[in-house]
Amino acid sequence: MTTDYETTVGMLREAVATFADAREWRPFHSPKNLAMSIAIEAAELMEHFQWLTEDQAWVAAGGAGVAEELADVLIYCLTLSNALDLDVTGAVLAKLQVNEGNYPAAEFRGRFRRPEREKGNDAL
Amino acid sequence: MTTDYETTVGMLREAVATFADAREWRPFHSPKNLAMSIAIEAAELMEHFQWLTEDQAWVAAGGAGVAEELADVLIYCLTLSNALDLDVTGAVLAKLQVNEGNYPAAEFRGRFRRPEREKGNDAL
Amino acid sequence: MTTDYETTVGMLREAVATFADAREWRPFHSPKNLAMSIAIEAAELMEHFQWLTEDQAWVAAGGAGVAEELADVLIYCLTLSNALDLDVTGAVLAKLQVNEGNYPAAEFRGRFRRPEREKGNDAL
Amino acid sequence: MTTDYETTVGMLREAVATFADAREWRPFHSPKNLAMSIAIEAAELMEHFQWLTEDQAWVAAGGAGVAEELADVLIYCLTLSNALDLDVTGAVLAKLQVNEGNYPAAEFRGRFRRPEREKGNDAL
């Protein structure tokens, strides 16, 4: 288990569960607390790009800090899926299917909004 | 590819990439934009638990909306890993190892802070 | 200018503008950057309550850190209002009026959702 | 009470308190819930600028939606200050003084990081 090509989502969820269980942290892992924690880590990821231009942000994104913060977001996402016994693959594929309906490729090619309505935010 | 047991992280990243490429959305997928999007979806996940007690939040967590929002967070995380060509498994396992050092199981069993310092937030 | 009773919103906006102008920070203060910064500071405020029970959170809320983080959120909100030349008082009062329509007192007394629909989140 | 020039922060806090009290919403207004709500509204504000270039974001910022979302963030900030009986003016001025020490004007003019260390994020 070392790269994305040979690691199942289930194996990654297991690694996260093992870490938490060794510390008996399940009692803290309520949905409300985990959703807060995902949002906190997402903000820390975003902080790496605060005030930067798009070009500067691309440079910053190559740093180790960004990989660590993205990992933190993912660790809490997997922890939540463990707490809820929710299949991540099923949830992601189901959402992609919903998005297929909401964002037909022909209509949204190169754009994240429908041409006819320039207001509002139709993005994924 | 239907459940976490038979799906590699790489396959999931591929599904997300295929969706984006069919719409030619890569130009939007800068690190700064994606970090913002992860944070936006994390807040939408959190919104499902807004004002709820812990007990009410557990009930709400079983709804389809929570699975969809968690999927949205994950889709953007995987999109960011694709944009950066970053191995998710490697990043998560490396961060768990860092956390092993920061939160020794013997010291943090059943607690998310060191006993000696009850102030501050030492949580993961 | 020392307390909320004798300080106008305009005076507070002025204090924030003076600080930024002394550092020639206006070029950084685009709406996109400031919205990101508000979200980052909001997450840092939230971090003070991460993993805490409601009772523990009330205790933590009395600490100086919470006042500092709330101030950070407000400083960026006022900075955004300065960047947009937007009257804060007008915006807040207008939104309260919208909320009066959306959440009639008779219907929402002691509840943040309409009685008839227990799903969804109708909160302010 | 109509503009920032004639409205004290205390008057604005009072308007927010009156709205909440008419609905008996104080029981919901715990620090943990309010911090979550500030973060949720901050994300909704940010959503107005999702995927936009800096130029597009300036245009979007002139819309009514941005003023409404900024008002929502502020309403919850004022609600938290009411819940904690915290003087907003005092907190903001104290934080600006802290920032004066951390970001000396001479050193940070036109930059949000110290010249000597181009890594890390020293921004306000």
Q: Tell me about the biggest sheet of chain A?
A: none
Q: SS-based structural class of chain A? A: mainly alpha
- Can you give the helix content of chain A as a percent range? 55-70%
The helix/strand order of chain A is HHHHHH
Compute the average pLDDT of chain A: 92
Poorly predicted runs of chain A are: 117-124
For the terminal residues of chain A, how far apart are their CA atoms?
A: 32 Å
Oligomer: homotetramer
Rg of chain A over CA atoms, rounded to whole Å, is: 18 Å
Overall shape of chain A: globular
Number of strands of chain A: 0
Report the portion of residues of chain A in β strands.
under 5%
Biggest interchain interface, per-side counts:
A-B, 79 and 79 residues
Tally of contiguous helical segments of chain A? 6
What report would you give on this structure?
The structure is a homotetramer of 124-residue chains. Chain A has six helices and no strands. Residues 117-124 of chain A have low confidence and may be disordered. Chain A has 124 residues and is mainly α. Chain A has helices at 9-22, 31-47, 54-60, 64-84, 88-102, 105-108. Chains in contact: A-B, A-C, A-D, B-C, B-D, C-D.
